[in-house]
Specification:
The chain has about 300 residues and is α/β, with parallel strands linked by helices. About 40% of the residues lie in helices and about 20% in strands. Helix 1 links the parallel strand 1 and strand 2. The structure holds adenosine-5'-triphosphate and magnesium ion. Magnesium ion binds near residues 120, 121, 149 and 213.
């Protein structure tokens, strides 16, 4: 009733016709145009998204280098990239502006590793809680080669496993408002990968964020990898876990991005461009604090502000 409707501010320096048309059609967008580096420098503060073809800009009082450094710290895309998926970029911009969680694109994300005990479960549950506290529907699916860790860690009540959901019509349990979908080793023996995939696709279709907690040596890993928009390899500072993470990243042609958990300096030196660095939070980790996921969430939704 009071004040102006909130708007997404987009800085535009492109002549791409598809990008310009998509921006014009978006109702909640305020466009700030610039065609010089100095002009762009002035209109960037406060923008939620920059659609910029840097080579088009005429260089004036500010160098192209200075502008490109500014752009690195914000949500930015070229004209052609924006035109290819404008809805997705605008959804990210709305997110950056504190608007429109309801427009968030659905995401399936695998947290994986070849080494044990690196923090897959801890980070998956912390991320799930983080998104849930923002009102986003979240499911966490777990694949283990033994009993369910979820069942062991969250002791209140029994969680139906994927076998019971797939064959006995049971529904998933929830924990802190998060749908919990475990698959222990016994279930993996009893179901085909097609059966499992059908259940997981239903799960992903009914949640905005679906996280998989899965070792990359699990027989159903290929199904999870195929379903995932993003694969995060969790590594702790142990040299073997870092070596395994680098190996996984290599054999997936870089789709698997490395997250350094409990990271010290030596780990940071070994991994050139980690997707995220998560601090050691000591025994607090056992409570899966949503705060632990703050640095991970922007890997899933660029522009995310905790
Ligand atoms: N950022 C962190 N700070 C402090 N402790 C952590 C952190 N991340 C994980 N831990 C601790 O490390 C241990 C292993 O974590 P977790 O069980 O999540 O690893 P995992 O990869 O799921 O292991 P597994 O291979 O057995 O499934 C746990 O005791 C957990 O509390
Ligand atoms: Mg685990």
């Amino acid at each position: 009733m009071f004040g102006r409707k909130k708007r997404v501010v987009v800085t535009v320096a492109t002549r791409h016709p598809g990008a310009l048309a998509a921006l014009e059609n978006a109702e909640d967008v305020e466009i700030r145009e610039a065609m010089t580096t100095g002009g762009l420098y002035r209109v960037l503060p406060g923008a939620h998204l920059a659609v910029v073809d840097l080579e088009l800009l005429t260089e004036t009082s500010v160098t192209r280098d200075q502008v490109s450094r500014l752009l690195q710290d914000m949500l930015c895309v070229g004209g052609a990239g924006f035109a290819a998926s404008p809805d997705e970029w605008l959804a990210r911009a709305r997110l950056a502006s504190g608007l429109g969680l309801e427009t968030l694109p659905a995401r399936v994300v695998a947290l994986t590793s070849l080494s044990g005990g690196v923090g897959k479960t801890t980070l998956a549950l912390s991320l799930a809680r983080h998104f849930r506290t923002k009102g986003i529907t979240v499911a966490v699916a777990e694949l283990t080669v033994g009993p369910s860790a979820f069942q062991a860690l969250m002791t209140d009540g029994y969680f139906p496993h994927i076998y019971e959901v797939a064959t006995q019509g049971k529904t998933w349990a929830t924990w802190n408002g998060i749908t919990v979908a475990p698959m222990d080793w016994r279930s993996a023996q009893l179901l085909s990968s097609d059966q499992a995939e059908r259940v997981w696709r239903d799960l992903a279709a009914s949640h905005v964020v679906t996280l998989f907690d899965v070792p990359a040596y699990h027989p159903f890993w290929a199904v999870v990898e195929k379903m995932s928009h993003a694969v995060l390899v969790i590594a702790d500072p142990r040299p073997d876990s870092l070596a395994n993470a680098l190996f996984l990243s290599e054999i997936t042609d870089g789709k698997a991005r490395i997250v350094l958990n409990r990271s010290g300096l030596s780990a940071r030196l070994m991994v050139e461009d980690p997707a995220a660095v998560v601090p050691d939070v000591g025994s607090d980790a056992r409570g899966f604090p949503p705060s632990l996921a703050r640095r991970l969430a922007p890997v899933i939704y660029p522009g995310w502000r905790a």
